[in-house]
Design a protein that fits this description.
Elements (H helix, E strand, L loop, with lengths): L2 H8 L4 H8 L3 H7 L9 H11 L3 H14 L3 E3 L2 H9 L4 E5 L1 H11 L4 H10 L3 H16 L4 H10 L2 E6 L3 E6 L5
Parallel strand pairs: 1-2
Antiparallel strand pairs: 2-4, 3-4
Helix pairs in contact: 2-4, 4-5, 6-10
Length: 176
Amino acid sequence: MNYLDLYLRKNNCKRYDVHKKTGVSQQLLSNHTKRTVEKYSGKVLIAIANTINKTPGDVLNDLLTLEKENPAFEAYNPSELLLGLNEQWDYIVIKGTYGKEIYNIMKNQLSETETLGFELGSGGGITILTSAIETVRDLFSNCDKNNREIEKKLRLYKLSSMSDDVVFLTLKQLHY
């Protein structure tokens, strides 16, 4: 999970701001987005601290607390949702009217049991056929590229709950 960007966002900052203010390379910052907080380098912690006017110790404590909380990614529109899906957040909360659209997409997907039944019944051949059909559909679809990408990546998630204006998704691999 990308705690670095989440922490920076909470402090009204971006990786680019850290790079500009401190000279730490964007590549180094990018490498830290996939690491656990314990493996963050001192150089990066100092750069973040200098950018947001905190001590490196405070930054480390805040990041460790954030990691322990394991927060959900919040999305209100397609571009935010795509960001969360690309980073494969464990939990994604979609709020507002956009949540209802995602709920409609999710309820039209086959359940894991139904998918497993098809795959076992076809000896795995249905997976290849499904992939081919989706590729052809994407070629002739006039749907927005981002929407197609969102639909593809949503297959990695399970609909955990739905209320009036909030959809809660969980990464399927957490249930294995």
